[in-house]
Amino acid sequence: MTAVDASLSSSAHVAVASHFNRTNVSTWPVTAFLVCSITVQPLYASLSDCIGRKTIYLSCAALFLLGIGLAAVAPSWTCLILARCVCGLASSGLTIMGSVVLTDLVGVKKRGYYQSMNYVNFGSASALGSVSGGTIVDRFGWSWLYKIQLPFALVTLVMVYFFIPWTIEASEDMSSRDETTESRRLLSLFDWTGAFVLVISLLLLVFVLGTAGNVLPWTNPFVLLALLLFPCTVYALVRVEATAQKPVLPPVLVQFPFRNIMINAFFLSIINYIVMYNVTFFFQAVLLETPAQASTHLVAPSIAFTVVSAISGATIARLETPKPTLRISQVMLLCGAVGLMVMATILPRTETPGALYNLCLAMPILGVGMMAPSALLLLLGMSDRNNHATLNGGFIMMRSLGGFTATSISTTIVQNVFQQTMRPFMTSEEIKKKIDSVRLNMDNLQTLEEPLRAQVVNAYRTGFIVLFGLVITLSVLIIFGFIGVSDGQVVQETPDTAEPGSVTEMEDLMGDTDDSDG
């Protein structure tokens, strides 16, 4: 359900924004979704330990249904953004609780088999959403992106209620009074101040990245104020996290070699989201495809990610180390980044078959799909089991932060470069209005006369060249970031170091045989 929702949003967000004449800020609903998702991520798993898995799972399923319903009837751009905030709060819980409950129900030993099934389901859902998003908007209207999800969201809620057992909620020897006391204790220990400061920092960052030079000039007082306040909130966050009992961003995350892996996870997620959330924009703006045609190009990278992730997990389990796949993924990622640059610079000038474009899109995602599980398993393997939950949560949060940053900065980069490139051609007020109309609604590009349309297309292509140049830079930084890390020794743990009751992600793929977890 969450995979379909995410892929529908990524494949049709430009078309939806065009309906509201907001193409220049098309990623704002996505950014709002991610900000809310990041905010509550640390809370769900901790709360479920005390008030029960099913309670949290059921609440998130109901909240997701509400968010989808609100998005389906949103009368304005602002209402749509607010509805996607609700979806973000719920989707994060569905994803986390699905992972935790899976381990609770099947155990760590059997987790690998069911995780493979999850990869297949996720990939199939992503491909389905990718190929259908543009078509749904073209034929039925943008609201049907969410209306069509309502029955499935309702089925999800019903299935969670009837098929997730209550018996996994709490320890059998814990009374209701003990559960209430423990829940209150947990809520009192949660880093509410850190979470609040983190959200404020993210909102300031998204405001600058999403509006500066795009919606508002860099000299705007609000932009300057946000630029001034952002480093202050980051400093405050560091001070708060240093003294918090259960910090949202634990200090262990900034220690070597974990720091390097976390930063690389952040960069990796930026690359992934830049590709997945700008594919339709690229093909509509540069190759003049319809939303339905543009969305089909998301199928290849979606399937590539799913297949290579499953293969990587099996390979790591067989080799009992993630290092070979980690090295291969670095090469694939850099080659894929170069392929994106070729796609933006050379291929539009030639008669190129669609399959070659799909190959250029799939290559970096293959690198992402192989590197993500490899980096996570290396991270867990280099630490003792007591830090697994913290490091795994930090890894997920850094990837979420990367996605949030990518969706904010990618549109701003393309739109800023577009405006700078088109500035010499704005020789009259009429031409300026036509150019602005394209920035607000991508459908207007098809109606422009030559040579203005060719100039607009070239300006957008220049914007994507700069954006894909950033992808190459990040790929190189990732390679340097793993120097000295990928050759580290994997910690071999004894049963004495295991922490009963901890839930860790994907560690079963490392050949773990201790079934005391979960």
From TrEMBL:
It is a multi-pass membrane protein. Its main location: membrane. The chain crosses the membrane at residues 26-44, 56-75, 81-107, 148-168, 189-210, 222-240, 261-286, 298-319, 331-349, 355-380, 401-418, 464-485. GO terms for molecular function: basic amino acid transmembrane transporter activity. Residues 1-487 form the Major facilitator superfamily (MFS) profile domain. It is found in: Membrane. The keyword Iron does not apply. InterPro entries: MFS, MFS_dom, MFS_trans_sf. Pfam families: MFS_1. Keywords: Membrane, Transmembrane, Transmembrane helix. Residues 505-518 have a biased composition (Acidic residues). GO terms for cellular component: fungal-type vacuole membrane. Residues 493-518 are annotated as: Disordered. This is Major facilitator superfamily (MFS) profile domain-containing protein.
